[in-house]
Predict the 3D structure of the following.
Amino acid sequence: MHNVGRSLIISSSPLPTSSPGISLADCFADFFTDKISTLRISLTILLLHLHPHTTSPPTEPPNLSSFTPVSESEISKILFNCPNKQSYSDPIPTWLLKVCTPVLTPTITNILNLSLTSGHFHPILKESVISPLLKKPTLDKDQLSNYRPISNLSLISKIIERVVKSRLTEHLVSNGLLNPNKSA
C-alpha cells in the first residue's frame, strides 16, 4: 500500500451510525482501502488473462521519462481558471491567491518545476479532506458501499495535477496511445 498522506473526513450528507468502539472515520478508511485493494487485484488478473495466447510481448510504448517544465503564464492561466473554492488545507483563500498572482506565480512555478524534475511530490501536498457522499439520497445511509469518497485537495495540488494531466495527455495523443473507443 502506498502512503497517500493524511486525510480528514468531513461530510454534510447523512452518515451511517458507527459501531461501538469503532470510529466512523476508521470504518470508511477500511472500506475504501479494501475497495481499492480489490480493484487492484481484479485489474492484475484481467491484465494477466488479456492475451493468454500471445507468444511475443506487445511493442513497448514510447517512454515518458520527463515532463516539460511549466511556464509562469501556464500557471497563471490555470490559476485564473480555478473556481474560488478552497480546501481546509489551503493556507490562503483562492480569491486572495488570484489577487496576488503576479507576486506568487514565480514561486509556484518554481515549486511545480522542482516537483516535475525531481519526481517528488511534497507530503503536505498529499493531504486532503475526504468527505463521504451518499450516492443517492434514497440509499441506506448505514451501508458503506452506498457512499463515494470526495477528496478536496489544496489548490497547489490541483494545479500540479492539471499540469501533469496536460503533459500525460499530450504524450498519449502524440504517440497514439489513447484508445479511440474510450469513454468518460
Notes: Residues 7-51+69-174 form one domain. The two ends are 27 Å apart (CA to CA). The CA atoms of residues 9 and 130 lie 5 Å apart. DSSP finds five helices and three strands in the chain.
